[in-house]
Amino acid sequence: MRFKALHNYTSKLPLVDPMQFTAYELTGTDTATSILSGVMNGIKEETEGIMKEYSTRYSDLQVVATGGDAGLFVTLLKSEIFARPYLVLEGLNRILNYNI
Questions:
Q1: Which of 32, 36, 52, 59 has the fewest CB atoms nearer than 10 Å to its CB?
Q2: Could you tell me where the beta strands, DSSP code E, fall in 2-85?
């Protein structure tokens, strides 16, 4: 959504597809890599910050990343995270199978 917002709500920024990049640097070298760096590092820092806040309150905190892009972000984070990109769909399928 962040990539789409930058593209849709500005007049000239391109729509960047994070999947087209195998890696990114802290500082971009052009518009696309600068957008990629800003979005990905922003998400990384927000996630690590909130995880740190929660871990100060809950010493046995375990984080599960879900959603189709979970794998993309888990590799960026320093903390140990369990990733199940399709956890909700798996759960709904289990409920369906149980009820059939």
A1: 59
A2: 63-66, 81-84
Retrieve residue 3's tokens.
Answer: 């990539």
Listed in sequence order, the residues at least 6 apart from 93 whose beta carbon sits closer than 8 Å to its beta carbon are none
CB of 21 closer than 8 Å to CB of 34 = no
Cα gap 82→63, rounded to integer Å: 6
Residue-wise pLDDT for 40-92, tens only, equals 888 888 988 998 999 999 989 888 777 777 766 666 776 666 667 788 888 99
The residue written with tokens 């087209």 in the block is: 20
Tokens 């369906």, residue?
96
Q: What is the dihedral of CA 37, 38, 41, 47, to 10 degrees?
A: -150
pTM of the entire predicted model: 0.71
Residue 87, strand partner residues: none
Contacts of 65 (CB under 8 A, 6+ apart): 73, 74, 81, 82, 83, 84, 85
